[in-house]
Amino acid sequence: MTKQAEALARDFHPDKAVEEEIREQAAHDLSSEPDAVEIPEELLKCGVVIDKAISYLVEQNLPAELIASALLGGSLGVLARTTDAETMIRMLQTAIDSVRSGELICADAFSDGE
After folding, report:
1. Across 4-11, average pLDDT
2. Which terminus of the chain has a smaller tally of CB atoms within 10 A, N or C?
3. Is the pTM of this model over 0.70?
């Protein structure tokens, strides 16, 4: 890791107001759905930090593919240290199945806005 990246990682603190706003929005969204699953607070916190990191990287004009690749690589590294291969394979297969079924495809993601 470069010194600049180390300094950024050391100094990175998620914005508490953004975190609270996301929690409130998630609670509101879930309350209107009768069969909604409660999102654990830890997961919400992780999501806020990741969203802030992604926003920062996008603001640095880094290519989306590189950002996604770094996040995926980091995620796989965490999984490799904390779970077995079969669990990782099941998780990855679920992601693959979601892409193939169209769940993760944004129809206008590549449009030019027209």
Report:
1. 60
2. C
3. no
